[in-house]
């Protein structure tokens, strides 16, 4: 489907067979390695050339002033931006007396492979220096999923035609200069050299740098140790200054001889721990890693991933590109969340500095749905992070004159990091998204301790927000006015259907959870009157419907607005927000990203109870010609509902768009980091879309249907302590309980008892045929 691909299409690998320096920044994102705590972009070992150097530690950011032309009450004053921490990846190489640099000499071969099963990035190159010496360099890099502080590189040099003197400089470098500092000069100044040196050590083969961020006051320690293997005469020396610690390794190699360096790097940061404690912490992490050595790290990585894929793999038959893309997507979603442990999962994971390293609702509504069924522990951790940030969210609610907790639209540390913009302050739906994720996780795992200790508090504080944000009118109907829903081309709108339905289920879930945990509810100050008020608000929630045209409204009055003039909008005027004023987008029928359509998926049980399939199809058909997909969060949602309403070809095109967003750099900004929500959306499009998977309370229901292109789709899910396999062919679906106690699921309307005795196969009926809805001019999926 995509021509001129940069990467080969293989089921378990992403391989680049030659290097294009113009596309370096994109490949650095695609080849980024991370465990959710440490993130290394796929920069070349020798550091240069580079697109964007990047080493990140989840939660390490710097503060900078947020500029406003005019002051206003409640505007966040400080911005947070992820910083490039001390770079431990560097291994510079001198060949005779010339630096190994791809921009000079002759590159005979250059291949990089991201291995999705082994969790390593491998590189092989053969290079002839300008003076005519030819060498082979091999490196293998990993960021350990098993030991969260650790990343490691094995680097090997071999001369191919003559005796060669080589020098490897293995470094830790802080305050690397970055190619394009951020737009705002005040922010750029704060982010230039953000790390103040505190300590540097170089001893034997060990290196350590400790720094502290100037404004946010976070201490960062990075240490490295090395195992060097070379011919007799190989020597090492170490030195350090404030921002650089270096081990220099020299050797003279005959053709066929190799110099190999195994470098292990440990990372740590803290807002509280002392300098000596941080130094000890990273030294201890190095000692733990040294225990099993390089081979141990490689073996642990494989074992971690074998375990993950055993209950998370998705197989697509008949479409090799989507097969590779969904595994690539799952791998990066896992990397983003696996070891984040009570930290945010940023929109770009730890693959780039796009969006300033902020986390949005992307986490709860895109990333966590995938992890709930594939790596559930990571979900509990991500939501515990939200719980830890409740004090900031309560303060924000108070500042806005509201009760409960107003979670930030974008953040690193839990405080609002969005400069004033309607979407920032008024996108209250993030509260319901968090609540929804907590309910989803609890139902899918049966983790009642989590419900009592974490979900309950999140539900109560968000329910309080909704109760204070909305109001009953004189008929008793509950309205939530003046909010921004998922579609950022509408703002300060009344009764956004997504927000109202999500708030409704938030309020009901809070009241239900309080009933299940009365003591904890009392401790949180909830009494019967308060939870009755939540139920009352939920049950009288206003949902806008236009009788004349027979569709649910995205928000009250939306369908009355003038339609956007799509016919006069040129292809190069997208994304619209960069070519038209927001005020005009706000007052017209034009949709940046799925909103009502997303509600039909996330609040499917409300729609099932209140309308039939034809209504859902009519809603979808109404919103399709208005939705321009100026956000990468849209295609996957449209894929799910397109599949649900039987538009399988359209669903396929949307799924492919979500899937190839980064492998094909569809939005031309993969260089800033991967689109983790869209990658997660690939799984959602396949599992929820074509698999038709829906959670109804604590039961799973499947309404499978395959697009023509797929001959078979198979996926595995973790659910309430079981592992379940679902295999779908064009006319039947097979369910197998792989591990765990018997389970009842539903296939369409049929109850299916799975007891581990073997697979159950049932027929898949063809969906009802309906005319395919139109998309705005120039905005069809798969349109060049
Ligand atoms: C989208 C938001 C999203 C953010 C980060 C924006 O373009 O409109 O919904 O949260 O990107 O991915």
What would your notes on this structure say?
- With 784 residues, the protein is an alpha+beta fold.
- It has two domains: 14-302, Distorted Sandwich (Beta-galactosidase, Chain A, domain 5); 313-693, Glycosyltransferase, CATH 1.50.10.
- Strands 1-2-10-11-12-13-20-17-16-15 form a ten-stranded antiparallel beta sheet. A five-stranded antiparallel beta sheet has the order 9-8-14-19-18, with no helix packed on it. Strands 21-30-31-32-35 form a five-stranded antiparallel beta sheet.
- Helix 5 packs across helix 20 (676-690).
- The longest helix has 38 residues, at 275-312.
- It is globular, with a radius of gyration of 27 Å.
- The model has no long low-confidence stretch (mean pLDDT 96).
- The site of beta-D-glucopyranose (BGC) has 12 residues, from loops.
CATH architecture descriptor text of the largest domain: Alpha/alpha barrel
Mind telling me the C-alpha Rg?
A: 27 Å
Could you give the order of strands across the largest sheet?
1-2-10-11-12-13-20-17-16-15
> What share of the residues lie within helices?
25-40%
Which range does the strand content fall in? 25-35%
Spans of at least 5 consecutive residues with low confidence: none
Can you give the mean pLDDT?
Answer: 96
Largest sheet properties: 10 strands, antiparallel
- How far is the N terminus from the C terminus? 11 Å
Summarize the structure.
Helices cover 33% and strands 25% of the residues.
SSE blueprint:
Blueprint: E1 8-9, E2 13-16, H1 24-30, E3 33-34, E4 38-40, E5 55-57, E6 61-65, E7 78-82, E8 91-95, E9 98-99, E10 106-115, E11 120-128, E12 134-143, E13 150-159, E14 164-173, H2 185-191, E15 195-203, E16 206-213, E17 219-229, E18 235-240, E19 244-253, E20 259-270, H3 275-312, E21 314-317, H4 320-337, H5 362-374, H6 376-388, H7 390-399, H8 422-426, H9 429-445, H10 448-469, E22 471-472, E23 478-479, H11 497-516, H12 518-523, H13 528-539, E24 545-546, E25 551-552, E26 562-563, H14 582-586, E27 588-589, H15 596-602, H16 604-610, H17 613-623, H18 634-644, H19 648-660, H20 676-690, E28 693-696, E29 699-702, E30 712-719, E31 722-729, E32 732-739, E33 743-747, E34 750-754, E35 760-763
Parallel strand pairs: 26-27, 29-33
Antiparallel strand pairs: 1-2, 2-10, 3-4, 4-5, 6-7, 8-9, 8-14, 10-11, 11-12, 12-13, 13-20, 14-19, 15-16, 16-17, 17-20, 18-19, 21-30, 22-23, 24-25, 28-29, 30-31, 31-32, 32-35, 33-34
Helix pairs in contact: 4-20, 5-6, 5-9, 5-20, 6-9, 6-10, 9-10, 9-11, 10-11, 11-13, 11-15, 15-16, 15-18, 18-19, 18-20, 19-20
This protein binds beta-D-glucopyranose.
